[in-house]
Amino acid sequence: MIPQLDGLLLVDKPPGRTSHDIVDFVRRRFEQRKVGHCGTLDPIATGLLMLVVGKATRVQDLLMAEDKEYEGTLKLGETTDTQDAAGKILETKPVPAQERSAIDGAFAKFSGEFDQVPPMVSAIKKDGVPLYKLAREGKTIDRPARKVRIDKYEILEVALPIVRFRIHCTKGFYVRTYCHDLGQVLGCGGHMAALIRTRSGNFELSKAVRWSDLEAGQGIDYLARHLISLPEISRIRRT
């Protein structure tokens, strides 16, 4: 009988796969009954995906509640129906030669605590039905705004129509919507072209297992070597 392990697995998620795909792979490959993830990453997003295995599922909610750090790419001039590059382009506008001060001002507008309206293409449920399923049916419903917070942001590069940035934000923050809203403030529209999760709480992408290595991994010993134990999870969280 394959032993059932306990711990946290940090994975560097590749593009094109859902968070559930990664969970399902680990569950099947290593024959583990209880595997979950601590915060969805969209298929186009990459970076830190935290998987809880066995008894670590008991601290799943605590780990999901941690603040997150992302590096994102905003593409100005195009608005999409999903607010990211995976969606259908709804509107195209010329991107004016934005002064750096205007870009700085747009980012500053969304600093600290503010209201954010979740996108239709999201896992939030309305009467038990995820919004993304309603969106596939062409439906749009009113979504109440939620309080979110950006504690720190940094503009990494401006090479119009591309703006690269780094943010430190609260749980439940939609970077897709952030990019969409930045585009609206700048007057030309925009969407999220790429996203990397680099940190969740005190857990860092640099410590994650590369997807190619995980795909090649065989046997329960491989998984055991890469799991962070329950006591170690607590220690890292308190650091």
Shape descriptor reads: globular
CATH architecture of the largest domain: 2-Layer Sandwich
- Mind telling me the CATH class of the largest domain? Alpha Beta
Q: In total, how many domains does the architecture comprise?
A: 2
Strand content: 25-35%
**Number of distinct beta strands:** 14
A few lines on this structure:
With 239 residues, this protein is of the alpha+beta class.
Distinctive features:
239 residues; alpha+beta; Pseudouridine synthase; 2 domains; 10-stranded mixed beta sheet; two-stranded antiparallel sheet; 8 helices; 14 strands; 28% helix; globular
Kindly describe this structure.
There is one protein chain. By secondary structure, the chain is α+β, with helices and mostly antiparallel strands. The protein has 2 domains: 7-65 and 201-238, 2-Layer Sandwich (Pseudouridine synthase), CATH 3.30.2350.10; 68-199, Pseudouridine synthase (2-Layer Sandwich). It is 28% helix and 33% strand. It contains 8 helices and 14 strands. It has helices at residues 19-29, 60-64, 100-109, 131-136, 175-186, 211-216, 220-226, 230-238, and strands spanning 7-13, 35-37, 46-53, 68-76, 78-80, 89-92, 112-116, 125-126, 129-130, 146-159, 162-169, 190-200, 203-204, 209-210. The strands form 3 sheets. Strands 1, 2, 3, 4, 7, 10, 11, 12, 13 and 14 form a 10-stranded mixed β-sheet that branches. Strand 12 and strand 13 form a beta hairpin. The longest helix is centred in the last third of the chain and has 12 residues, at 175-186. The chain is globular and about 60 Å long.
